[in-house]
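Q: Could you fold this chain for me?
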Amino acid sequence: MCIVMFLNIHIGYCLTCEYFDWMCSTSCLISHESIYIYDLENKLKYVMVSYNKLYCGAMKVYRSILLLFCCKFLHTLALDCSVMNGNLKQIDAGSGSVVGVNNNNEAFVLIDNVFTKISKSLKHFSVGPAGQLGVDSSYNIFKLKSGSFVKFPGLLKQVDAGGDQILAGVNKNDQIYCVNMDANNNWPSCNSPWVNLNGGLKYYSCGPYSCWGVSGDDKIWIMKDVSNNVCSGAGTFVNIDGFLSMIEVATDGSVFGINSNGMLYQRIGVTRSNPSGTKWQVMSACPNKHKHVSFDLGVLWVVCVDGSIRKCTI
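A: Sure. Below is the predicted structure, expressed as C-alpha cells.
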C-alpha cells in the first residue's frame, strides 16, 4: 500500500502513473522535498513535492488509483463537440462512413447525419477501405456484399476494416488474425483467408502502414511495416508506453484510444516514417468518462460512458 499525503505536486506529463508503481515497489520513507522520476518520453524530469509525509509499504498501489491521482495534473485538450441523437456502445468511422452498435446489439449507419437502424444484429461493427464488416453475439463474421450482409469465414469477437483493404481482428481467445487485400477482394473464392499472428490481444485495429492493439493487461502494442499484401507486417509486436483498454487507427494513420478509467488519448507524432509516434495527448470530449472512439476525415467520433454520441472537430 502506498499512501501519499501532500499539499501540492507539479508533474509535466503522465499517462498511467507507472512510475509511482516503481516508487511503491519497496518499503521507503521519504523526508526530502525533491524526487526524480522518468516521464513517458524517458527523459529525466524534476518533480517538486510539498508534503507532510510520503510513506510506501511493500505492496504496489493499484494502477487505477494512481492514474486518477496523477492525471489531475495533465494538460487536457478540450474538443469542440456537438451531441448527436442516439445511443451507442461502439462506433467506427472510415472512408466517409460512420457505423455503430448499441447495448441491444442493434446496428446503425449514419445517413444524412442521422444514425439509422439496419436490420442486422451485431455486437461490433467496422467500416473502412476493406468494406463494412461486423460480428454478432455468436462471433460469426458478416461482410456487406452487393447490399446484403453475407457470412464471412471464421469466428471473431472484434473486427476491423480500417487497413489498406486488409481485414484484422481478434477472437474470443485473444488470438490475432488478418486478411491480405487480394484474399479480401477475391472472397469468396478464397476459403481460408485469415492469417494468424503471434501474440494475444483483446482489441486490434489497422491503418495504412501499421496496426495497433491492446492486450488483456491493457498494454499497448504496434505492428509495423503493414501493407495490403503483407497484413502480418514485421511479424513482431513492439510495446508502446502507457495503458489503454481500446484503441483505433484511422485510415490516415492517426491513433486514438481510451483507458480503463474512461480517459481519451491521441498518439502525437505518428507518421509513416515514425509509426510509433512520440507521446500521448489527453483529450476531453464527454462531460463524464469516454467509452469508445473513432476518427475519419478530420472528425473524431466519441461514445461517452452513458452511451451518448459526440461529433468533434480536431
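A (continued): Residues 128 and 162 are 4 Å apart (CA to CA).
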